[in-house]
Structure formats: C-alpha cells, structure tokens
C-alpha cells in the first residue's frame, strides 16, 4: 500500500474522533470509499484521489471547528447578548441592501 494512502486513512480516523457524527460514522463512510478506489493503478488518478481525500479531511476539520465554536458560544454568551448581536447584524444587512439599491437606481438614471 502506498504510504500516502495509509497516511490519509490515518488522518481520517484521527479527525473522525472529534467529528460530530462520531468515529463509527467516519469509518463506515471512509472505508468503502477507499476500497472502491483500490483498483486505481494510474499514478495521476491515485494522486487526484489523495488530493480529494485531503480536501475532505480539511472540510471535516472545518465542521469540527464550527461545532466547537457554536458550543462554546452557546455556553458563554447570554441570550440577551446574542439577540443584540443579531439585531446589529440585521441592521448592517439592511444598510447594505439600501446602499446597493441606491447605487443601482443611480446607475439606471444616468
């Protein structure tokens, strides 16, 4: 087995420990994918599959980080503060929409 492939599988298992759906889900998903691509012999195709696998690992890490952030945020941010932050963000979005509509109407008039 190619050492890069073995390393990729180990990365999946390592990242899978913290994945929100659990290591068993990751193992059940990843193992068939590896076996499905086990017949690849073209070095370019193998390299492409490894690249896609590494991309998947990075995506999993992003999901894990988002889950941890949301958990910490919900634990340490009061509901009142969250509501105020939502209001501020909503006002910003409304202002952006108004500015873009004004800009569009100015461009149409000229």
How would you portray this structure in words?
- This protein has 110 residues and is mainly alpha-helical.
- It has 2 domains: 1-76, no CATH class; 78-110.
- 85% of the residues lie in helices and 0% in strands.
- The chain has 4 helices and no strands.
- The chain has helices spanning 3-16, 23-36, 43-76, 79-109.
- Helix 1 packs antiparallel against helix 2 and helix 1 runs parallel beside helix 3 (43-76).
- The longest helix is centred in the middle third of the chain and has 34 residues, at 43-76.
List the helices and strands and how they pair.
Blueprint: H1 3-16, H2 23-36, H3 43-76, H4 79-109
Q: Give me the number of helical elements.
A: 4
What is the SS-derived class? mainly alpha
State the order of secondary-structure elements, H for helix, E for strand.
HHHH
Q: Biggest β-sheet: count, sense, barrel?
A: none
Shape: elongated
Per DSSP E runs of 2 or more residues, the count of β-strands stands at 0
Mean pLDDT: 90
The helix fraction, in percent, is: over 70%
The fraction of residues in strands falls at under 5%
Radius of gyration: 23 Å
The low-confidence runs, each spanning 5 or more residues with pLDDT under 50, are none
Number of domains: 2
**What is the CA–CA distance across the termini?**
66 Å
InterPro entries: Complex1_LYR_dom (IPR008011), Complex1_LYR_ETFRF1_LYRM5 (IPR045296), ETFRF1 (IPR052000)
Pfam family, one: Complex1_LYR
GO cellular component, one term: mitochondrion
Family: Belongs to the complex I LYR family.
């Amino acid at each position: 087995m190619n050492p890069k492939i073995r390393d990729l599988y180990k990365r999946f298992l390592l990242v899978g420990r913290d994945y929100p759906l659990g290591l068993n889900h990751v193992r059940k998903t990843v193992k068939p994918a590896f076996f499905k691509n086990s017949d690849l012999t073209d070095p370019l195709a193998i390299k492409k599959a490894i690249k896609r696998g590494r991309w998947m690992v990075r995506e999993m890490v992003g999901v894990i980080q988002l889950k941890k952030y949301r958990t910490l945020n919900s634990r340490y941010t009061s509901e009142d503060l969250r509501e105020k932050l939502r209001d501020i963000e909503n006002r910003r979005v409304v202002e952006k929409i108004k500015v873009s509509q004004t800009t569009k109407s100015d461009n149409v008039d000229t």
